Structure formats: structure tokens, C-alpha cells
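Weekly modeling sync, notes
Attendees: S.R. (lead), two postdocs, one rotation student

Agenda item 3: backlog of single-chain predictions. S.R. asked that every request posted to the team notebook include the full sequence so nobody has to chase files. The rotation student volunteered to paste the first one in as an example of the format we agreed on. Action items at the bottom.

Example entry:
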Amino acid sequence: MSAPTVKIIDYDDFNSVILTLYCLSKILEESLLCHNSDFNMDIQKTWQARLKFLQIDESDQTKMAKKEVFISVDIEASGPIPGEYDLLSIGMCLVDQPEIQFYCELKPVSHKADPKALAVSGFNLEDLTKNGIDPTTAMQNCATWLEQHLSKSETPIFVGLNAGFDWSFMNYYFHKFIGHNPFGVSSLDIKSLYMGAFGGRWSDTRAKNIIEILKPQSRGNHNALQDAIFQAELFRLILKQIQV
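Predicted structure, as returned to the notebook:
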């Protein structure tokens, strides 16, 4: 005869079981007080609502308890908007551990390009067609990299310099090719954070102006990974000023 299987449950699961048993015991207790032997429907509804409330509340607490991990993200694209133009490369690193990195170059989908955008990045669409990774594999690799470097108790926060642009391409490609965006619906913009910390005009948040004030050791060069590393340093320097 084989030994019985023992299932190990964690504290949160055990706590949920205790809460459920408690609520069920109260349903039974109150039903026994009724003259009718059948369960009183009002009592059932009351305790079902209590159970539902406990489940929602517990879920919300779990989400709120997750540690936020800042991920510096930069992309190069063939034009100004996703869907019509292509995502060409992705660079990511952990803000607090920039040596932990991700980089890939993607095959074009639309093959449409703004010459000015290609001049900035230095990419050639024909070369990417031959040597780039197909978008589905690229976005799955991105998601896998995030999973590998974050625990279940952590959540990734998308950090970018002019984050709205980079996030829009990442969001579009994540949803189009793998069906979900691990970063969710929001991003943290370094330019906005800088303006909030130092004041001034929006034009003061250009990279060259930020460099003059913060004096980072690294620089951006329109390589997505190098730019992600540069952004991570800027973000750390701004946080250091805020936390003084």
C-alpha cells in the first residue's frame, strides 16, 4: 500500500481555509437557531457576501504587499507609432542591478520606416529581416527574463526616459504577440520625475540638461541596452536627491 500523499499549503492558503471554516460554522450556527430546519436564505446570502468580501480583501492585500522592482527599458523603433511602424530593438536592466540585462533585435513586421528614425538608431531593415528575432519569440523572451529575475512577491515597474514612447511600443507588441503586458497599463517617466524633483520648465528635462545637473558616469548612444543602463543611473541619482 502506497503512502498517502501529503499536500503542503502555505500560510496564506491555511489562513483562507480557517476563514472559510469559520464562516461555514457561523452559517450552521445561525441556521440552527431558526425554527425551520431548512437553511434560512437570508442567512446564507449574508455569509456568502462575507466570504466574498474576505476573498476580495485578501487578494487586494496580496497585491498591495508586492515589492516594486524598477526595470529600466529603452527601445529603438522605425517610426513614431506602433502598429504602423516596427519595434526594432529592446534593452532592459534592473535599475538597482544594471549588470542584470536583456537585449534583442527584432525582425520588422511592416517594413515601413521613417528615414530619420533609422538614421538615429543606425539599423538597416534588410539586416534585421535576416538576423533579427521574430516578434513572438522576442516578446516571450522579454516576459521570461522578467519572470526569471522577479519573485512571485515582486512586480515590475516600467521606467523610461520619455517613457510614454517606449511603453507604447512594448505594450502593443506584448499584447499583439503574446497576449499580455507584464508591466501592466502604466509606466514611470524619468523626465516627469526629474521635473517634480528639481522644478523648472518641461524643456529643462532634456537629457543634456539632466546630465549637466546630475553628472552621471554613463551616457546614452541610441543602443537600446546602453540607453537602458544610462536611464537606470539617472533614475538612481534622482531618487538619491529626493531621499536626502
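Discussion: group reviewed the output briefly. Residues 14-55 form one domain.
Action items: rotation student to repeat for the remaining queue; S.R. to check formatting next week.
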